[in-house]
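Hi R.,

Here's the chain you asked about this morning:
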Amino acid sequence: MPVPTITLDELKAKLDAAEELTLVEALGPMYYEDSHLPGAINVPYRKLTTPELDAALAALPKKPIVVPCYDKRSSFFGLIVGLRLTRMGYEFLGRYT
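And here is the predicted structure, written out as tokens:
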């Protein structure tokens, strides 16, 4: 199964059309505070225990989700977050790099 990705043009079109979606950043807290997309929700994958991660993911709005990725590490965590969200019944549109 291919890993879902979303291009800049696709993401921009969705944002311009005011489509309902949630941006979930899988960055560590320091990186999130330093730089993140406006309106993004931080789920710092590496810093959370499994129960904390499950609770954070379950608390996300039930809207399609995009996970922005900035490097190999965040891309890997974005893939894992996307897989977990898909298994939880969320619509994972893909990783944006």
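One quick note: The helical segments are 8-16, 29-34, 50-58, 72-87.

Cheers,
M.
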